Amino acid sequence: MATPGTASADSDSPRKLRVVMAQLDFLVGDIPGNTELVLKATQQAQEQHQADIVLFPELCLTGYPPEDLLLRPSLDLRITEALERLQQANLEPAMVIGAPVRSGGLLYNAAVVVEKGEIRGQYFKRCPPNYQVFDEKRYFAEGRDTLVMEFKGVPVGITVCEDIWKDGPLEDAAAAGAQLILNLNASPYDIDKQARRKALLERKAADNRVSIVYTNLVGGQDELVFDGGSMVVDHAGALAVEAPQFTDGLFPVEFLCEHHCQPISQPLPEEPSLEANVYNALVTGVRDYVNKNGFKSVVLGLSGGIDSAVTLAVAADALGKDRVRAVMMPFRYTSSASLEDAEAQATAMGVQYDVFSIEPMYDVFMQTLAKPFEGTRPDTTEENLQARLRGVLLMSLSNKFGSLVLTTGNKSEMAVGYSTLYGDMAGGFDVLKDVPKTLVFRLAWYRNSLSQVIPERVITRPPSAELAPDQKDEDSLPGYDILDQILNLYVERDYSAEAIVAEGFERADVERVVRLVDINEYKRRQAPIGVRITERGFGKDRRYPITNGWKIGK
Hints:
The protein has helices spanning 31-49, 75-89, 169-175, 193-208, 274-292, 306-319, 336-349, 359-368, 380-401, 411-416, 437-450, 456-460, 480-492, 497-502, 507-519, 521-525, and strands at 2-3, 15-23, 53-55, 94-103, 106-115, 118-124, 148-151, 154-160, 180-185, 211-216, 218-221, 224-227, 231-233, 239-242, 249-257, 261-263, 297-301, 324-328, 352-355, 403-407, 429-430. With 554 residues, the protein is an alpha/beta fold.
């Protein structure tokens, strides 16, 4: 449908249209707070940037993803109140916002245009996604109509997120005369996602001869991180404007519109390295999870190993040194190198640091278990007891001081079950849950390139859980360079065991790794959530039954 807008400008000269991309961090469920953020941003866009249109992210009034909050009986009432509040403000710029809107008894993921105290148009998302982390069809009906409105005489089409990834919605808007497409997004981060977005927008813009404004959400929401990276592509498919990733703010762009809407290009941000990009995602995820859930501080076990070292660095960078507590909990197998390196890093980062030996507690437990364990040999039971004692200490500090426990397991370990239930898995948030071990090493080198905080020996010496004498991770696992490749093929790309063997890997390694992944689903179900950085993490992405009879093979 076409909706008339404001009056046309002088047709003898190019019409100017100023759009502000509101790349902001919204709190899921806080509809009144999010509404006030929209109003504040619009006022700022008007005063500082003389905005004609302010484009907000998808479902900004509820935050994204609102999940089953969308099923709450009071949802419609709260959204109605929010929309009335936006209209009452009677602001000059047009606000293009995202909100759940009910029409004809069905709920839609909508873009709502509020201009000068009125709702001037509504667009219902036509392609609600239902894959990976998305399950929008659980909540939303599919829209069917096209919306093209005039702003200062410029025909502008509106679409929502997934609509631009599918054929149809953008093409229909262009066919209806749109010279400019506004696209509201809540597109979660994963490695290389921004490059895929750019390629898509450049192709869509060039194919349809329309410029595209792509505004994306920024911030962390449980396991998801939204990286922003809002951008503008011109009608020839050239990237003209790009907002920095992981930074909230208002980003204006001016268009000169005649036969086409041509954005005035701006200097593009420097392309970040993969390591910098992932590190920023982790920092954003930790910062927002801790702050949005009201935790005063975090506590973690600092072992002198690389996983806890990188976790500590991320936590301190996300929250500041005064909100981070690191605890070394040595045992008889803890090396002097681990003790020295943990203290060195804690000192370098300026965080609170404590040392609590678990040896006395371990001895008491073993005395209590002496009779039932009589006649048995030491095995992983005694190793796991060490990890569980550490978990009890950290959880006690959490309870007493209101600190969130950060666990330190990486994706490689979580995949194969190289972790202890109610031990090193005990906590509220796993920073490295979706980070393969080989990438953990790269992140450590990257963080040290900013300032030297992780002792080099932590990065270079062979990884060890130090739960037994002279223990090394690779005593019980393939080398991480091999393990991570197998896991990538099996977990993220769904290769079968036979297909992985055909890629050149040893059959024994493949079958062992695949079996470990399969039998440890029960552990992952009980693990804390963590930041998602890959296309397929252990969480919303991958939902396998714990009890199943699926056999390794083709």
